[in-house]
Every structure is written in C-alpha cells, then in structure tokens.
Amino acid sequence: MTDVLSGLEAGFAVALLPLNLALVMGGCFVGTLIGALPGIGPINGVAILLPIAYGLGLPPESALILLAGIYYGAEYGGRISSILLNVPGDAGAVMTTLDGNPMAKRGEAGRALSLSAVASFCGGTAAVILMTLFGPLLASFAVKFNPSNYVALMVFAFASLASLVGKNPIKTLLGAVIGLMLATIGIDANTGVARYDFGVPDLLAGIDFLVVVIGLFGMAELIHLVEQQVTGKFTILPIGKSFVSMADLMATKWTILRSSLIGFFIGVLPGTGASVASAVAYGTEKRLASDGDTFGTGNPKGLAAPEAANNAAAGGAMVPMLTLGIPGSGTTAILLGALLLFNVTPGPMMFQTRPEIAWGLIASMYIGNVALLVINLPLVGLFARMLTIPQRYLIPLIAVLAFIGVYSVVGNPFDLFMIIGLGIFGWVLRKLHFSLAPIILGFVLGGLFEDNLRRALSISGGDWSILVADANSLVLYTLALLVVAVPLVLSRRKRMALDTEA
Fold it and tell me: Structurally, how many domains does the chain consist of?
C-alpha cells in the first residue's frame, strides 16, 4: 500500500504540471465532442488524433495523457446523441438509448444528461480507484481467461438478453439472432470461405459496426421523424429541468455502485469492452429493481446502469494494458501502439522503469473524471436545447452526421447505401415493435463468440468438452441458466398467487 501511495503521489506531481493539466482538460473536451458525434466513438477518435499527438513532439507521458483524456472523454460524450437523438455514439452507448431517449421525449433531457454525467463520473472514478489498488492482481487473473471461458462469458451475455429489453422475449431473441446473422457476413477468417456475400464484392470484408449502428439507429430515427412530420404527429419536445435532483441520486446510488463494479471487472477481461459491460449491468439492474418492468420507458436506473458500467469498463480496460502489455479493448490497443511509438514497453516493469508514465497516466484519470464533470454539467442545458431545433433542420442534421460519421472512417461509398438499406429495415422493425438494441448486441457479441469458439476448438482438436473443462466456464454457464430460469419461476409463482387470491 505504501508503494501505491508513493507512486500515486509521484503521478500527481506529473499530471498537475501545467502542460499535462492543459492536455487532460483539452483531451476530455475534444473527446466529449468526438463521442457526441454518431459513429465516430473513442477508438476512431484516438486513432485519428494519434498522429497529431506524436507530431507535436510531446514527452511520452504527456502524449499518453492527452490520448487517454480523449478516450474516456469520448466514452463520456457518447451519451449525448444516445439520449437526445436515439443514435448511439458507439457500441457502449447502445444501452443508454433504452431509457435515456424516452426520458428526453417526455421533456426530461436535462435531467437525463445530468444523471448520466454523474453516473459516468462515479463509474470512471470507481474504476481508477480499483485500478490503483488491485490492478496487477486483477490483470494476473484476467490473463488466465482462456477462449473457452470467453465462450461461456458470451453465453452468459446472450442469456442476459433474454429479459433485457422489451416485453416480448421472443422478439428480443429474434433481434439477437438477426444481429448474429449480420455478424457472419463476409469471408470466414478461419477457412477463407465467403459467407452470405450474394456475389457483392463489397460484402466480402463483412459489414462494419459503424454501418450497422448508424443504419439501424440513425437512419431509422431519421425515417421515423420524416414519418411523424408527414402524418402531422411531430411535436416540439419540452426541455424541462436541466439538473438531476438529490432524489434521483439517492434512488440510483446502489445501481451506480453495482454497475461500476460490474463494468470494471468485465472491462479488465481483454477483448470484452463497454458494450458487454453495459448490457450485463443493465440486465442485472432490471432483475434486481423493484420497478424493473418500467425499464425501457424512461427509468432513471435504466439510464444510470449502462452509463456507470461503460465508463468503468473503459478504466478496467487500461489494467491489462499497463500491467501486462495486453490491450483490453480496441482503444487501449491504439494506446499500446502509442507507447511502442515512443519506445516504451508496457508491462509490470514499466512501473519501475518509467513510473512517470504509468503513475502519471493513472493520476491524470482522477483529474480527467473531475474535469469531465466540471466541463459537461454546465453544458447540459445547451445540449438539451438541441431538441428544440426545428424539424426541417434536425432531419438534415441527423443525416449529415450519419453519412459523415461513417464515410470519414470506412471511406467506402457502398457503405452509404448499406446505411440507407439498414435504416429502412430498422424502421420496419420499429413499426413491428422490435427493440433494436438486441440486434446491435447480437452483432457485437457474435464476432467475439465465433472467434473464441473457433480458438477453443482449435486448441482441443475439435473436442467440444473443452467448453466445460474448468470452473470459470461452469460458473458462467450456471449463472446463464439462472438468469433464464429464475425469472420464469418467479413469474409462474406470481401467477399462481394471483390465481389463488382470485
């Protein structure tokens, strides 16, 4: 503990230097703006700005502080378009749309933005504290997670989807299956066989996540707004109060704490990320909450859970990168590349050989979380007023953000047509009362599931028993079974009790 405190003290000495303080503040602000743009997300924001950070000739610790500020600033900013426009900024913000956007639609945009800001701050701060205290220990556990364990984790995540969103579990399951089907399009990386490309060369590389999320959410929302305008059902949304109340904070305090812990521990596992963390946290809170049946209609707990979890996961993903040199997510993989660019080798020895980088980065994350709260809370009213933009301007704005966000990253005109097609498909699904979140999560988790299943079977020579060969997998399969079975048993008992009373 003494070593931790002395290291943290040295880290704050680095992070509080005027240059580094300015960089973390600037990184957080730019990251928030990047996160608010649909489709850009933290991974693309950090990738785009990495050459600039390197070209400025900054010291390694300063460049990493800047890039890390952009990273968790973008995780923070993803909530803005999710809540206001029902368009997730990135995969981790998909769950935020479920309750955040309904709150905005009933005139509580300011309340939703403020609550998500506080939940994000708590999740991020909890992650940094846990990383400081238990980082090396947790990283040593995470590195032992093998492909068969990841398969079990994905099964648990899919089981969580069963009662995650909507009142119809069949439609939720169908949505997840549609997502899995979209994830299988393209060349099979293992065999080189083209799958479901229908003779279209542009589909051989698969469908990019940005195209799916912007098409199903952004373009579908655009078509929905046009429909409302044509049918005369569109109404200007009231702004309502701009700040979260103490009552909201007290009602969600345990939700935020549980979701922060869930997000951090899932974030520590390499390759999982904020999308898995926010989905598991949301599903957990829906089952634990006494008012879980109101999730998806604008319940503050349903907003606080994924917001705390995805920011905690961002902090958790830094643990294996700093302590083992193993990136915990796509964005930390780019940060790892930035370290190597500066001839710095991450891993356990970095805390001894380059403590100014390791501890300076950790200290900057404490400062960055406070900075994000200070920067964003006064802007809540300004963000909320986006909802008062006239319809004739709002529709083109969403369209421009959708097309620019995708084309700037993928650079393929074919993907713009894919956005339109998926948008029409998403609009039809909305008319049929499908939730779009399970489709996105099925798409994200499908790739992780297939990759790890193939690795596990390759290791075992095709022996399926490897999937249940150790305790970690068995625990996760048991939890998955309980997640599906317990709600069914409880609902049956409730019906029997009601029949007895009648």
Answer: 1
Distance of CA 61 to the CA centre of its chain: 26
What is the 8-class DSSP label of residue 345? Answer: -
pLDDT attached to residue 319: 78
C-alpha 112/C-alpha 237 separation (Å) is 14
Q: Where are the alpha helices (DSSP H) in 187-232?
A: 209-213, 220-231
How much is the pLDDT for 162? 61
pTM assigned to the model? 0.73
Q: What is the pLDDT of residues 119-169, one digit of tens each?
A: 989 998 998 888 888 766 666 666 677 888 888 877 877 776 665 555 677
In this structure, are residues 92 and 119 in contact, taking their beta carbons and an 8 Å threshold? no
The pLDDT of residue 242 is above 70: no
| Average pLDDT of the chain to the nearest whole number | 79
Residue 230, Cβ density class (10 Å: 0-12 exposed, 13-18 middle, ≥19 buried): exposed
Amino acid letter, 472: N
SS3 of the chain: helix, strand, coil, percent, to 5: 80, 0, 20
Cα distance between residue 118 and residue 259, in whole Å: 13
Angle at 327 between CA 326 and CA 333, to 5 degrees: 130
Nearest CA-CA partner of 139 in 326, 303, 312, 10: 326
Query: Which residues neighbour 237 within 8 Å (Cβ) at sequence distance 6 or greater?
Result: 104, 105, 107, 109, 387, 388
CA distance 21 to 121: 18
Residue 473 exposure: Cα atoms within 13 Å on the Cβ side: 18
Residue (of 159, 90, 104, 176) closest to 429 by Cα position: 176
pLDDT at position 502 is 58
* Residue 8 confidence (pLDDT): 79
State the Cα–Cα distance between residues 421 and 398, nearest whole angstrom: 16
**Residue 195, beta-bridge partner list:** 186
Domain limits for position 392? 2-501
d(CA 133, CA 286): 30
Q: How far apart are the first and last CA of the chain?
A: 61
Average pLDDT over residues 237-259: 78
H or E element in which residue 187 lies: strand 186-187
CA distances 267 to 259, 327, 363, Å, are 12, 11, 19
**CA pair distance 53, 31, nearest whole angstrom:** 14
pLDDT digits (tens, 9 = 90+) for 327-378: 666 677 778 778 877 777 776 667 777 788 888 888 888 888 888 888 878 8
Q: Look at the chain and count its residues.
A: 502
Neighbours of 125 (CB within 10 A): 20
Token output for 131? 């990383």
Q: Give the C-alpha separation, 215 to 486, whole Å.
A: 35
90-94, 133-137, 250-254: which has the highest mean pLDDT? 250-254
